[in-house]
Amino acid sequence: YPSEFLMQKITEDNQIPVHLRVSVSLQYVAGLKGNALVEFFHGNIAEVENEELRHLMWSSVLFYKTPNVEVMACVLLSTKAIYFLLDDSFIHADEHQSDFWNKENSDCENSSFHLSCCFVLKLNDLQSVNVGLFDQYFRITGHSADHIVTCLTRDSYNTHTFIQQLMAVLSLLARTPSPEPVDKDFYSEFGSKNTGKMENYELIHSSRVKFIYPNEEEIGDLAFLVAEKMDGLTNLQSLNILLYVLAFQVNHVEGSAQNTSSLQPKTLILTSSDLFLFDEDYISYPLPEFAKEPPKRDKYQLVDGRRIRDLDRVLMGYQTYPQALTFVFDDVQNQDLMQNLTLDHFGE
């Protein structure tokens, strides 16, 4: 340890997404390569001497206690824990959550010393992993509200790779087996085992951590919600969700020293007739077992919806990934008139 392949893989993965800004301290981490990166992990982050760094990923993260603050993090998976190396500005982003983050080191602010706080989730405390629709994000759940984190990878490949690595690391954990019944009868002997059981898209790993995947009902619920927003003019049977993707809406901020643009996280849903933007709650659903009341907001909140037939043109930027798309719609004053004419004269 570490193998040549692992060193190369971690070095390749250590790249901050170009569209997201991070603090100087995280830029320093992103500049480390190979051995320097592994030494940095053991010298500054690892809690136990004999743990091994297995995977590195840059991702936006959300915490259950601060559901409105999305922050950039370097996610490090070792054989003992998952470490979230966070931007130091996050600590001050939400003043109401001062009890959640320890502010002991605030006296270092004015020095040239750059801070990062590290959130640690031990693998032994891990209870379940919920994978989001189309592998765009995943939520890691521990034993309390402080231990629920969603990684918004916005990339099915990154999600899949992390889940595979996590399963491999969990397989190394020696957990005490579930107590067996004293009197073994035929049914308990040959009935369902606790290991590798597939039930309602729920995979129970040998470490007893649940991996929960979305089933068809979630897509059905989403299609029903979208149909509701379309004023019921569409037959639910013929409504197909063609694309579900976590994206950013670009809002240009004018009047500043340089015309900057802020990125607002949005869920884009494309059907055969419409394009929708939703604000989605990625952290509160499904409800954790200890939750005493439902979340304050719905899982999906409609922000904007336009008909594809009103789409005039799509402008594409020439920059590399992530690609910027601008949708230009015709400004139709009375949309209902067109829809009603279609229904009266050409529909049933």
From TrEMBL:
InterPro entries, alphabetized: PH_domain-containing_M2 (IPR053015), PH_NISCH_C (IPR057714), PH_PLEKHM2 (IPR057288)
Molecular function terms, GO-annotated: kinesin binding
Alphabetically ordered keywords of this record: Cytoplasm
Transmembrane segments: none
Source domain of life: Eukaryota
Pfam families per the UniProt record, alphabetical: PH_NISCH_C (PF25625), PH_PLEKHM2 (PF23142)
Gene Ontology BP, a term: Golgi organization
Main location: cytoplasm
Coiled-coil stretches noted in the UniProt entry, renumbered to this chain: none
Subcellular location field: Cytoplasm
Domain PLEKHM2 PH positions: 114-178
GO CC entries: endosome membrane
Domain spans labelled Nischarin C-terminal PH: 241-347
Protein name (record): NISCH protein
Source lineage: Eukaryota, Metazoa, Chordata, Craniata, Vertebrata
